[in-house]
Specification:
Blueprint (H helix, E strand, L loop, with lengths): L14 H26 L21 H11 L4
């Protein structure tokens, strides 16, 4: 059975074109690896430096913080 869509014609390439294509493939692979490493292997968390003006316990929940702020703020 014949193919309905024929293969594209094979165009001969020069060694320079092959080298450029290979170089592009290497650069693409390096870029892909950097992107995957950036998103899938994040750097370890840096130790937190406490602020000299405010210090909030890192495990306190947002609701408690909001309740404390609202309890202290004067109502207009």
């Amino acid at each position: 059975m014949d193919k309905l869509i024929p293969d594209p014609p094979h165009e001969p390439t020069t060694p320079l074109e092959d080298a450029i294509r290979a170089d592009d493939l290497v650069k693409n692979r390096e870029a892909i690896k950097r992107a995957l490493d950036f998103y899938l292997c994040p750097e370890s968390a840096k130790p937190r430096q406490p602020s000299t003006m405010f210090l909030i316990h890192p495990k306190i929940d947002t609701e408690s913080l909001l309740a404390k702020v609202l309890a202290r703020s004067p109502h207009h």
